[in-house]
Specification:
heterodimer, A: about 260 residues, alpha/beta, 9 strands, about 20% helix, globular, B: about 270 residues, Rossmann fold, nine-stranded mixed sheet, 8 helices, Proteasome assembly chaperone 1 (chain A), Proteasome assembly chaperone 2 (chain B), Proteasome_assmbl_chaperone_2 (chain B), chaperone (chain B), Proteasome_assmbl_chp_2_euk (chain B)
């Protein structure tokens, strides 16, 4: 029987520091920033569509897309870049920004580095509303089992969405045909911060959360979803290394927990 | 902290009483605000965007079915029939930033013309060092800035118990006062976590930071508190909800009807998540 005095409280309850006015504040950190390959960029970038991947399946898809151009990267100063390769790799701790078109009308952001909840606000401001002002945002993340009130079976593929008010008002044919994320469960971290930013800025935004965290079925599902949103997207090559992907070690899983910040 | 009005909505300046939760054991303050939003039919009018609030999003917090109405970490509702503004907080403040957060929300309340602020919070029953008088049922305690010792005649007449543990001369209470009061000339040191004693429990709680911040901005502030333990805290929330309605300065006939209305079954709707 678990020790009720020492076990961690359930997600809706607080830890001691949450309720302590005199808890020590963290050491201040330099702000994150975006570096673009164009030395004289015309800021802010104004894509019609911004796709942001945080989940392992979506990062795999973005990485596999053949015709994309690396145009910049977001830097979190507290994270070392040692170990990153010159050519983008799924093992890198990076947040690269790609363009799918010459006019930067469709941008992809692959968030392969751990962003703590405390830093999420600053990162989301850069990506939505500051250096990049998109017309529409689609964020791809995994369902967080710690915040989900219900059972998640490892054998069942699930996907759900949350939308901003302006996305809800858009034409039904342009919106993603997914069930809504159930009430009572929450999503936190960077994807929540990004969607919140879209709501505050009155931008069309959709957060798609999927389950399981690592599974070829989710890769196929998201590939089809993205093809629906961007018909010209070449997802044919995405499935080539799918079996290798499903057994690959080192892919992001609750990556912010593994961050050097928490060692 | 930025107040963002929801598209198509307008702020009603007559809603001059602000009710908000302080993060506390059992999420009681947040549950109580959920009950108030539900029972008054308050309409969401906007959001508060604060850099010190941790992010979270969810589906509609009040309907039985997930209708896709997004919920953000800090939302503002208005109930014109009760002239009340309700701010609901759904996620924690970043560690060590509670004082900054309290300052920001006090700035919002002052700049938006609020006249009275009611903070709802719970206290840990296990930190109590005296027996509670339960002869009249569960008791609500209060702390007010109406008088220097925390007393308020209006709350006394309503039968609330004064929070005797409030000591305006206590070092942590004085420290809180000094950080929010621009005119305070006394330089007090930040109490380190190792130095804190049992008596410092109350001023260490979020409600104390909010109380001190609103007080420093010249707003009338009343904290309503109840003791509880972690568990099923809905009954505690109902208690605070009923008492908060009677605490308001201007009590119209619709509010009296709400006071005596049977408790609403929101067991499948209350979803203060963090």
């Amino acid at each position: 029987m678990e020790d009720v005095l020492t076990e961690n409280p359930p997600p809706s309850r607080f830890i001691q520091d949450d309720l302590n006015n005199f808890a020590s504040p963290p050491e201040p950190l330099p702000s994150p920033f975006i570096v673009l390959s164009n030395p004289k960029p015309d800021l802010p970038l104004k894509p019609s569509l911004l796709l942001i991947s945080l989940s392992s399946p979506s990062l795999y898809i973005f990485h596999s897309l053949p015709s994309k151009t690396l145009i910049g990267t977001l830097i979190l100063p507290e994270l070392p870049v040692s170990g990153n390769t010159i050519e983008p790799s799924l093992q890198d701790k990076s947040c690269n920004i790609y363009s799918l078109s010459n006019d930067n009308s469709i941008l992809l952001v692959s968030v392969q580095l751990p962003v703590s909840p405390e830093r999420s606000n600053l990162v989301s401001r850069l990506l939505v509303g500051q250096d990049i002002v998109p017309e529409r945002v689609i964020i791809l993340d995994s369902i967080q089992s710690r915040n989900f009130r219900g059972r998640l079976s490892p054998d069942e593929t699930l996907a759900a969405k949350l939308e901003t008010s302006s996305e809800k008002k858009a034409a039904a044919t342009s919106r993603l045909n997914l069930d809504y994320f159930p009430s009572g469960s929450v999503i936190d971290g960077l994807s929540a911060s990004l969607l919140s930013r879209c709501q505050l800025k009155n931008i069309r935004g959709t957060l798609v959360v999927s389950w399981p965290e690592f599974d070829p079925s989710v890769v196929r599902f998201l590939g089809a979803l993205l093809k629906n949103i961007v018909p010209g997207l070449d997802v044919a090559s995405v499935g080539k290394d799918l079996e290798m992907y499903s057994s690959r070690a080192g892919l992001k899983k609750d990556a912010w927990v593994e961050s050097d910040l928490y060692t | 902290m930025e107040f963002v009005v929801e598209e198509g909505k307008r702020v009603d300046e007559e809603c001059s009483t602000l009710i908000l939760p302080a993060l506390s054991i059992g999420n009681v303050g947040q549950l109580a605000v959920d009950l108030l939003v539900s029972s008054t039919g308050a309409d969401r009018v906007g959001y508060l965007d604060d850099p010190y609030l941790l992010p979270c999003v969810g589906n509609d917090a009040y309907g039985p079915l997930p209708c896709g109405e997004i919920s953000l970490p800090l939302e503002v509702y208005e109930s014109p029939s009760t002239a009340t503004t309700l701010a609901q907080q759904r996620s924690p403040v970043a560690k060590g930033m509670m004082i900054k957060f309290a300052e920001n929300i006090a700035d919002f309340a002052a700049s938006s013309g609020k006249k009275h602020v009611i903070v709802l919070s719970s206290l840990d029953f296990q930190r109590l060092h005296h027996n509670l008088d339960m002869s009249r049922g569960p008791q609500v305690y209060y702390l007010s800035n109406a008088e220097a010792n925390g007393r308020d005649e209006h709350c006394e007449r309503l039968g609330f118990g004064r929070l005797n543990e409030y000591d305006s001369e206590g070092r942590c209470w004085k420290y809180l006062c000094s950080v929010f009061d621009e005119n305070c000339k006394e330089e007090l040191t930040f109490p380190s976590e190792d130095e804190l004693e049992d008596i410092d429990y109350y001023p260490s709680l979020p409600f104390a930071a909010l109380f001190s911040a609103f007080k420093a901005r010249g707003l009338k502030v009343t904290c309503l508190l109840c003791y509880c333990s972690e568990g099923d805290n809905i009954p505690d929330a109902f208690l605070l909800t009923r008492r908060s309605r009677s605490c308001r300065l201007h009590v119209g006939s619709c509010v009296w009807r709400l006071l005596f209305h049977p408790p609403i079954d929101v067991s499948n709707r209350v979803s203060s998540m963090k």
